[in-house]
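Support request, priority: normal
Reporter: lab tech (M.K.)
Component: structure prediction queue

Hi team, I submitted a job for CU044_5270 family protein from Actinomadura napierensis yesterday, and the status page still shows it as pending. I've pasted the exact input below so you can check whether something in the sequence is tripping the parser. The sequence length should be 436 residues. Please let me know if I need to resubmit or if it's stuck on your end.
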Amino acid sequence: MSGIDELDGVRRLLAEPPGPSSEASEKAFGMLADEMSGGRRVRAPGARRRMRSRWPLGLGAGLVTVGAAATVAVVATGQGAPEPPKAPSGVDLNKQAVLAAAAKAELMPTGKYWYTDQIHGLSYIVRPKTGAYAIVGAHSETFEWTGAKTGTGEAFFGRDLPARPPTPKDEALWRKAGSPSKFRVWSNDHYSTYDRRSTPWKADHPDAKGGGSWFHAGGDIAVKDLQNLPTDPERLAARFLDRASPLELRKKALERQAESMRRAPVPGDPKRRAERARGIEKLQSKIAEIGAQIAKEPDGSRAKVLNAERLMMDLPLPPAVRAGLMRALAAQPGVRAIGPVVDGLGRRGTALAAADTTTEVTGELGDPAAEQGSYTSHQEIIFDPATGELLGSRSVLTRPGGAYRSQAPGFVIDYWLVRSSGWTDARPKPPAKLPF
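Reply from support: The job had stalled in the queue. We restarted it manually and it finished. Here are the results:
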């Protein structure tokens, strides 16, 4: 069955209305070509470009302490979602729903400016004598817009969001503890304090002459680069998904370092020889540790989900490219569809999940005893089933343990939410209203 026939079958299966006419689709792609024309602009030395983790200068701790710590964001994960419709025998309705969303993504409109409004949150366990509860801290919102053509401008904004108990149960326990306005929690390798205040939007060096390219993976991507991306799922997978994971890259770097140390001339000083031997032994131990982590997820599905999420969040991918990437991800080994979910903003979506991975938190970085132990989680990427737009990405607890030993499966770890994004003909402005 061809891709078009398959997606037509999905529409019938889900009893969806027919998609836009061929004339409407052709017009949408024509708009994309018109509005996204133009060449690469050359940036002056030292010029900065911000997206996602490149926070505006001067913002509070909530925007600058985000890291790869074993911390948790508590969000509902599908509770109260409607039961999926019954499907014919042998049909994976969950994955078909993602494919249907991909079909709709092909028809997203374009405009003169691309904008994206994103929220990042982590949650922590606060443990007063009155009862442990969760709070979302390191809470931030960023807003960026970029003109489709060079010279139409670009700007990046950021603000801190209030730390807060995320569920009614947590709020009740927070009130029982006296409704504190500040929360001191363990984050990364130190204690951080988050409070209930928000900060105003702060612009970070807006460029009235900018536009025409977007920042991703350490460099600028020009409109012509986006226009030249393939739409075929297999070619997209080969380019963006079938790449080494961060763990594999780290392992290879350590292997090169160890080999360089072994080939270096042997020091004449016995103490220096012993130091070199200990250094090589330490590197080998770290290489073995990373190798064991890689062995737990041989298909690298978590990294693939994260790669796809970063592409969709960072770049205004042409509609057909976005749809092809969704189909490519759905076909990856270890990636499975998990059906209806609810994100942190209460929006219903359809999601793909990577294979489970286990994280071990030791006292190596000074972690308190309450934070130590192992837990298992998986990475999810969520789409709007009505439009195919990306709603966000999150890590979800599947086996409690460590700092989360008291939490139930479904606890969310390190989430990004796309509050809104898309093309518009009017110059975008950050929303005044807080998202929560």
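The CA atoms of residues 194 and 319 lie 39 Å apart. The chain has two domains: 50-238+300-424, 250-292. Let us know if anything else looks off. Ticket resolved.
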